[in-house]
Amino acid sequence: MADHFADFALPDTDLTRKALEYAEELETPALVNHCVRSYLFGRAVGEGQGLRPGADYDDELLFLACVLHDAGLSEPGDRDQRFEVDGADVAAAFLRGHGLADDRIELVWQAIALHTSVGIAHRLRPEIALTHLGAGADVVGDGVEAFPEGFADRVHAAFPRLLPDAGLADAILDQALRNPRKAPLSSLAFELLRKAEPDLSVPDFRETAARAWHGVA
């Protein structure tokens, strides 16, 4: 992996190397590769929008957010919240333990917690938006047509996919089946759970609201 820092101009700091090592300890190889591809694709999306690493956004923070964004799908990261928030908490604790400033930790936390928030994350700071857009590009191919010719092939050669969706769906669904509280209504985990369990009872918004205020003038 050390060669890849030079080969792909990854932000090479003591903290980024430790974060990648931490991700490799926590996650499967397929997930780690997905996380690194998310950074590379997010950076490429940013370049297509005219955003320059180091000038328009903090490249180290983008890398930290991307490489740790699925920590909530690891066994140590599987707690009692939706996986995005669990992962953000795991990342924050790791970064705090390595002396990162609180305001920088908060930005990484937000990027990870919001990385599946379609329609929201892309409107926020570049570090948050590019974490979201990079992960989306890797999982569903959003925006990849604008990448330089051969770039995606080069990334996949270095960080192969290994599994069709990097094992994301199975990991998210496994957590949701064991703990439904990790799949709140309309979350990615909930949608996967609803697809896998067609008989799942889905609360009706109008009925829930009516019960809450029944009898109140």
From TrEMBL:
InterPro entries, alphabetized: HD_domain (IPR006674)
SUPFAM superfamilies for the chain: HD-domain/PDEase-like (SSF109604)
A Pfam family this chain is assigned to: HD
Residue span(s) of domain HD: 32-120
Highest taxon of source: Bacteria
Protein name according to UniProt: HD domain-containing protein
